[in-house]
From TrEMBL:
The lineage of its organism: Bacteria, Pseudomonadati, Bacteroidota, Flavobacteriia, Flavobacteriales. It comes from Flavobacterium agrisoli. InterPro entries: DUF7218, Rho-like_N. One of its GO terms (biological process) is DNA-templated transcription termination. Residues 17-44 are annotated as: Disordered. Residues 50-76 form the Rho termination factor-like N-terminal domain. This is Rho termination factor N-terminal domain-containing protein.
Length: 79
């Protein structure tokens, strides 16, 4: 077991192997729907600002409350 706080260990390990930091891999692997969508999620451009905001909160992006929709998309893609 990696860490009791990691919800999706397989996803965490795969992200680490791709070069993600421990913190970023843990944030992604601990999202409520970690590993469930299988690439079937709609593109961020089709999400509402509210959906983007909640996803940014799930992955721990700071400053999200002041971001515009385009900024949230950029932060989610590069976090």
């Amino acid at each position: 077991m990696i860490d009791a706080r990691i919800k999706n260990e397989a996803q965490y390990e795969a992200l680490r192997e791709k070069g993600y930091s421990k913190q970023k891999a843990a944030r992604i692997a601990n999202t409520p729907d970690a590993g469930k969508k299988g690439g079937k999620a709609k593109p961020y451009e089709q999400w509402t600002k509210k959906e983007l905001y909640h996803q940014a909160a799930r992955v721990g992006i700071s400053g999200r409350s002041k971001m515009k929709k385009a900024e949230l998309i950029e932060a989610l893609r590069h976090n």
